[in-house]
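Before a colleague's protein record goes any further, I have to sign it off. I want your independent view on whether this chain really folds as the C-alpha cells say. The record follows directly below this note.
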Amino acid sequence: MVVMARRGLVFLALLTIFLGLLVPRATAAVPVTRYEGSLEGARYLVLVPENWNGTLILWSHGMYSLAFPEPDRIALTSQPTTESYLLEQGYALAASQYRTVRGWSIEEALTDQTRLHDWFSRTVGPARRTIAAGESIGAITATLLAERNPHRFTGLMTFCGNLAGGAAHWNSGLDLGYALNTLLDARLELVRITDPAANVGRFTNAVQAATANPQGQARLALANALAEIPGWFDATRPRPTAVADQVFWQGVWDRFYRAGAFGIDRVALEERAGGNPSWNVGVDYRRILAKAGERPLVERAYAEAGLDLDVDLERLAKAPRVTPDPAAAGYLAKFGLPLGGTPVPVLTMHTVADGTAPAAHERAYAERVGPGGDLRQLFVNRAGHCVFTASEEITALRTLERRLDAGNWPSSGPAALNAEAGKLAPEHQTIFDAVGEARVTTTPAFARHSPPPYPRVLPF
C-alpha cells in the first residue's frame, strides 16, 4: 500500500501543527497598530489597521492538548494568509490566549474573551460590527459567547466546530475506547484514568495491531464508525477505496487526533469538571451503526474478514457500561453545550471528512437550531480537521457579511462560492498537507453535503 510508506511522516506534521510553527505571522500591506499584553493573567493580541472599517473579529482558538507545549503564537484566524488579507481590507482582529491555554478551558475563555472585548471598546473604540468566530473547540466558545451575550455581537462564524457539544464529543471518545476494549481487548481505562501515558500507549498499540489483519481491520472500522471517524485523511487525494487503506487512515485519526480521550486531556477534563462527565448507559450501538456514515465500510470490512457483524454488535450490547457523575456532566453542559438559539446570524463551515470533529456535528447543531433559525452551513469536499484555504475562509466571511448587510442570506451554491473564492490571489489557495509536511496549492472545494446524524446527541 502506498499509504503505509507515509505513516512515519504523519507524527512530525501533526506535532508541527500543535506547536503552531507552520508559518511566520503574515505581514499586512497597510500600517497596523499592534496591541498585546495581559488581562487578569490572559495574554491577548489585537491588530487594528489604519483603514479600520469598523468591524472587529473576535477569534476563539481551538483546544491545545496538554500533551504538547503551549503555543507562543496567538492565532487570529484559521488560515495564516487570511490574517493579512483581512487587515488589508480594514478588519480589526483580536484574540485572548485565555488564562488556561491548554485543555478544556471554555470556562476561562468565556470570561477572557468578554474582558478583551470590553478592553477593545475602551481602548480602541466601540466597533460598528463585532463578529464572534472560532474553530474546533473554539467554535463552541464563540457560539456560547454569541448565545449568552447577543448584545455584544452582530454575527457568528465557526469553522470545523464540535457544535453537537462537549458531552457528545467526549462520549464519542468513550464509545471508541469501549468498542476497542470489547472487541480488541485493548484494556483501556475509559474514565478516571490512573496512568495517562500508559493508557495512551495501550490505545495506540491496539489501533496499530488492529490494522495488521482483516479481522482487526473490521473491528477497528466498527469502533471508528461509532464515533463517525472517516476512512479518509489525506487532504490532497480522494478518499481511498480499499478497506485496508480506509481503516489505516481511521487509525491515523485515532492515534494522532483522538488519543487525548485516553490521556492527560481526559484527566484534566475530569479534574476541572469534578468527576466523570461521560456515559454510555442506555446506548444502543446497533442503532448508532445503522445511521452511521461509515456503515458501508464496516459491512464491507466484516464481509471481507469473514466475521459476523451481529455477533460483535451483541458483544457491545452486553458489555458493562459507564455511568457519569451528574455534577460533572452538568459542568460540561454549562461549558460546552450550544443551545442553538441563533440570536445573531450564524454561518458554519466544515470539511466533509473530519475525524476530530466529524461533520455530523453540523447536523446536530442544525437540528437544535430548527428550521426557523438564522443559520447558513457550508461544506468543503476535503479531508482534514480545519483544512481550509484562506480563500474559503474569506468567502465564508463575505457570505455572512452579505447576510448582515442585506438582512437575508444570499444564494450560496457551491459553484458560485468556488468561483468567488477562486478569484482570490494564489497565496490564498493553499492548504497544509499533513502527510507531505508542506503547504500545497489546491482549488476551492465548496460542495453540497448532508452529514449523517451525530452518534451521541443528548440525552444519549
